[in-house]
Design brief:
This protein is mostly helical. It folds into 2 domains: 196 residues, MFS general substrate transporter like domains (Growth Hormone, Chain: A), CATH 1.20.1250.20; 68 residues, no CATH class. Helices cover 75% and strands 0% of the residues. It is globular. It starts with a helix and ends in a 7-residue tail after the last helix.
C-alpha cells in the first residue's frame, strides 16, 4: 500500500508539473513596460524644434530690417544656412557611428547648438559693442553644425530605448509622439516668435529681435537639460566600427578603380560586382539597393527648394 501511495503521489506530481510547464509555455509573453525615459527625448525634440523654427521665422526679417540686406542677399544667406544644416546630417551620423555614439554626439552638438542660439540672441542687442552681423554668422554656423549634427541621431536614439520585436507597438507610438512634438514645436514657435518680435518694444526700437531670438535660445538650453536628465536611465546601443555611408562609398570607389584595372582581363556583369571580392556580396547588394532608392529621391530637391521659400520670399 505504501509503495502504491508513493506511486500515485509521484504520478500526480508529474501531471501537475506537466500542466504547469504547459501553462508557462502557452502563456502570452509578458508585456514590457513602456520606457518612460523616452519622454525626455520627446521633450528635447519639442524644445529644439521650437528653437529652430522660431529662429528661422524671423531670420530674413532680421537680415533686411536690422542688417540692411536686400531681398536677394537675405534669401541667398538664408538658403545657404538651410543647406548647411541638412548637409551636416551626414557629418553627425558619421560622428555618432564611429566616434562618440548617439548620446555623446547629441550632447556635444546640442551644447554647440545652444551656444550658437545664445550668440544670435545676444548679438541682436543693439547696445552691445560688437558687430551684429559677425555675431549672427558665428551663431548660425554653430546652429547649423548642432542642428544638422543631432538630426540623424535623436530619433534613432529614441528607438534604441525599445526592445524589438517585443515592443513593436510601443515604438510605433513613440515615433507618432516624436513626430507630433516636431510639428507642435514648429507650429507654436512660428506663431509666438513673430509676435514677440513685432508686438514687444525694447532698446528704443519698435520691435524686439533680442527677445524673439532669446526665447527660442532659452528653449534650446531647456532641451539640453531635458536630455541630460535621462542620462542614467537610457539604453545605449553599441557604436559601429564604421559608418555605413563610408563603407558604401568605399565599395563604389573600389568598384570603379577595380573595373579600370580589370575590365579587359576579368569583366563583370555590373559595375558594383567588381567590389564583391573585397567587400562581399551582401554589402554590394545593399549598396545597389541604396543607389536605386537614391534614384527615387532625385525629384525631392525641387519640392524642398520650393517648400523652404516659405521662410525667405513667400
Amino acid at each position: 500500500m505504501g509503495n502504491s501511495d508513493e506511486q500515485m503521489t509521484d504520478g500526480s506530481n508529474e501531471q501537475n508539473n506537466s500542466r504547469t510547464l504547459s501553462t508557462v509555455e502557452n502563456a502570452a509573453p509578458q508585456k514590457l513596460p513602456y520606457p518612460k525615459r523616452v519622454f525626455f527625448i520627446i521633450g528635447n525634440e519639442f524644445c529644439e524644434r521650437f528653437n529652430f523654427y522660431g529662429m528661422k521665422a524671423i531670420l530674413v526679417l532680421y537680415f533686411k530690417n536690422k542688417l540692411g540686406y536686400s531681398d536677394k542677399n537675405a534669401t541667398v544667406v538664408y538658403h545657404m544656412f538651410e543647406m548647411f544644416v541638412y548637409f551636416m546630417c551626414i557629418f553627425g551620423g558619421i560622428l555618432s557611428d564611429v566616434c562618440f555614439g548617439k548620446f555623446n554626439t547629441i550632447l556635444y552638438l546640442s551644447i554647440v547648438y545652444s551656444i550658437g542660439s545664445v550668440i544670435v540672441s545676444i548679438g541682436s542687442i543693439p547696445v552691445i559693442d560688437f558687430s551684429p552681423e559677425i555675431a549672427l554668422y558665428i551663431g548660425l554656423t554653430f546652429i547649423a553644425l548642432g542642428s544638422g549634427g543631432i538630426k540623424p541621431c535623436v530619433s534613432s536614439f529614441g528607438g534604441d530605448q525599445f526592445k524589438m520585436p517585443e515592443q513593436a507597438a510601443q515604438i510605433a507610438t513613440f515615433f507618432s509622439l516624436f513626430y507630433f512634438s516636431i510639428n507642435a514645436g514648429s507650429l507654436i514657435s512660428t506663431t509666438i516668435t513673430p509676435i514677440l518680435r513685432a508686438d514687444v518694444h525694447c532698446f528704443d526700437d519698435n520691435d524686439c529681435f533680442p527677445l524673439a531670438f532669446g526665447v527660442p535660445a532659452i528653449l534650446m538650453v531647456v532641451s539640453l537639460v531635458f536630455f541630460i536628465i535621462g542620462k542614467s536611465s537610457y539604453t545605449y546601443a553599441k557604436t559601429a566600427e564604421e559608418n555605413m555611408i563610408i563603407r558604401m562609398f568605399k565599395c563604389i570607389t573600389n568598384a570603379i578603380s577595380t573595373k579600370y584595372r580589370e575590365r579587359s582581363t576579368n569583366p563583370r556583369e555590373n559595375l558594383l560586382d567588381y567590389s564583391i571580392d573585397k567587400y562581399g556580396a551582401q554589402l554590394v547588394s545593399e549598396t545597389r539597393v541604396m543607389l536605386k532608392i537614391l534614384l527615387l529621391y532625385l525629384p525631392l530637391p525641387f519640392f524642398w527648394s520650393l517648400f523652404d521659400q516659405q521662410g525667405s520670399r513667400w
